[in-house]
Amino acid sequence: MARRSGSAYLCAMDQFLLDNEATLRLGVFGGMLLAMIAAERLAPRRRLTQGLVGRWFRNLSVVVLNTLVLRLSFFFLPTLAVGFAFLMAERGIGLFNLVDLPPVLEIVAAVLLLDLAIWAQHVAFHKVPLFWRLHRVHHADMDIDVTTGLRFHPVEIILSMVFKFAVIALLGPAAVAVLLFEVVLNGAAMFNHANLRLPGWLDRLMRRIIVTPDFHRVHHSVIPSETDSNYGFNLTLWDRLFGTLTPQPRAGHDGMEIGLADYREGRRQGLGWMLALPFRRS
Q1: How many CA within 13 A on the CB side of residue 115?
Q2: pTM summary value
Q3: How many domains does the chain have?
Q4: Domain that residue 19 falls in
Q5: pLDDT digits (tens, 9 = 90+) for 34-78
Q6: Considering only CA atoms, which of 269, 277, 245, 273 is closest in space to residue 48?
Q7: Distance of alpha carbon 102 from alpha carbon 111, whole angstroms
Q8: Residues facing residue 221 across a β-bridge
């Protein structure tokens, strides 16, 4: 363990997280999901157009399927992201394994770089036609709420994991930084997709740094120029820096249409249809 041996704190933290990763993930996921469901009931932002039970069944079925796919991937991949970061640390592979930084500084820098990498991946899934065929499963949802943030095609999940492995191999971040980032990313996806009305002053304050539901909802507009903006999941920094920010939807949050113009029929939203969508013609 070339560089980690010089940081007993990170080494011990990495091992603790590796041993307790599943419990930590499940706890944060379950807590955030229930919190957003409750918040949506108390302060809804928009009137939903689709039946709630059917949409939730379809979207959450995809979550279960994706979880099974990731578990089955152990036949092909020796570990997932956190375990892979631990493996890179043991072998001294990656940028952070070649330099000696204070643990807090390393974790902050790693989380920021991972966030930038996921932002860039999101842009690629919109710009590369083959990737867009997969990603449009996420955008074809005709409403947007907390379950939309969990609706991704299984093949996209696998490709995202492979991309994450490449980034981890390049950066060599501590396992604690990878787990922290993944937990925050998962929670942020549920928060910024939530059908939640925040007070205007709070939204304006938060979006200076954090992607809010109103900020991200623009990205789910049927208007292509709005869909191709606001790519961030965690931080608004990257959209500001690279000029891909659209502050508000043209039709307003109450009047905007959600989804993809080609797929606006409720009968075409079944689970089988969602899984087959990447292989259908536009």
Answers
A1: 26
A2: 0.90
A3: 1
A4: 4-279
A5: 999 999 999 999 999 888 898 999 999 999 999 888 777 655 555
A6: 269
A7: 14
A8: 258
